[in-house]
Amino acid sequence: MAFFFRNKSKPDLAKSTKELLPRIWESPTSQKTEEELVKLLAQMKLVLQGTQETESSPEQVAHLVNSIIQEDLLHSLAKSIYLLPFGARKDTQAIFSHVLRFKASIATSPDPPALTYIVDVRPEVVVELCRGYDHRESAMPCGIVLREALKHDPVAAIILYDQSTKDGMAAKVDDIDFQRKQTGEGVFWNFFSWIDRGAFEVSTDAFTTFREILTKHKQLVSQYLSVNFDLFFSRYNSILVQSNSYVTKRQSIKLLGEILLDRANYNVMTAYVDRGEHLKICMNLLKDDRKMVQYEGFHVFKVFVANPNKSVAVQRILLNNRDRLLSFLPKFLEDRTEDDQFTDEKSFLIRQIETMPPTPIEPLRD
Fold first, then answer.
1. Average per-residue pLDDT in the chain?
2. Is 212 within 8 Å of 150 (Cβ atoms)?
3. Could you give the 3-state DSSP secondary structure of residue 1?
4. Are the CB atoms for 329 and 284 separated by under 8 Å?
5. Which of 28, 58, 86, 322 is most buried by a 10 A CB count?
């Protein structure tokens, strides 16, 4: 099939695509424009990955990648991907993935040049990829590209610390003040609504990316959660943990447990389990009608009870509900007879509640 595309010289592909993309924003989009874009994107993918019969040419790949960077094509593609036909969206995803992984045979930097360009010059590419979740058409291809990019800490930092408005300038990593509290207006905070209120394919993919951000960049996220503790957990608890969507609720409770039990987040965990209102939310999860919500809620509840330095507020709630808890817990999910760890943990929590002193005691602090 390669002969089909010989009418365009390789260096012109990125420039031609960049010049054509603004036309798909016109209404109505002409069929000719759409067809030409489909051809250009297919040809770029062919140059980058070759075919089953023919390997890609390293020289042509390097030339095309450089051209894509020079033309700032990644930003245009990220912004326009949802307007493309299905096959062209898949090709765009493949182009992004190849470009983000590409390193020249003689490289002066350990990072791929496209990644360096995005991080140092054009962080708006990352922000626009996140905004792909605004449209169900682009949710999956943008999500796949984002998770490829999120193998690198600076990309997570761009998402977490973005406070740009639509079409505004995103912050470069070197300009980020990691100690400054966020306003809750940047692109990261949109994940809460994408997950909770998006169409199923949007919600599912957005949650996968959200989880990737919060679990794969431990030092960065630990600092971020410490600085933005109140804002983050206020939204997390009210929007995700108490979501009306069963899938969102269950996944979010499970992720909360993972975040709290990660050693990198020790200070975040101690701050979270100090709050009486957090314990109340968790205890309500134990009474949920759905067993898997109860089960995931249990794994957060145990962190409160097992904490040797419970706050007075937490002690008071547990003591006020001690009789009910001691009656409730022995029968709690009693059909999980083959889950020995769960049974042992439940017995341990019962003993902890039984042996609590009758009145709250000020906890020991380091």
1. 93
2. yes
3. coil
4. no
5. 322
Chain position carrying tokens 């470009």: 99
Checking 48-52 for CB contacts under 8 A at 24+ apart, the result is 48/94, 48/95, 48/98, 48/99, 48/102, 49/94, 49/98, 51/1, 51/2
| d(C-alpha 35, C-alpha 227), whole Å | 49
The pLDDT of 288-293, averaged and rounded, is 96
In the numeric block, the tokens 């002193």 are attached to 357
Amino acid at 97: S
Give me the count of residues in the chain: 366
pLDDT at site 255: 98
Report whether 96 contacts 56 (CB < 8 A): no
Provide Rg for the chain, Cα atoms: 25
Place of tokens 């089909």: 4
What's the gap between Cα 136 and its chain centre? 16
Return the closest-CA partner of residue 274 out of 312, 302, 301: 312
The band of 2, judged by pLDDT with boundaries at 50, 70 and 90, is very low
Contacts of 330 (CB under 8 A, 6+ apart): 346, 350
Average pLDDT over residues 156-163: 96
The amino acid sitting at 58 is P
Say if residues 14 and 70 touch (Cβ distance below 8 Å). Answer: yes
**Tens of pLDDT along 60-81?**
999 999 999 999 999 999 999 9
Which band of pLDDT confidence, cut at 50, 70 and 90, is reported for residue 363? confident
Give the closest residue to 124 by CA, choosing from 186, 84, 75, 76. Answer: 75
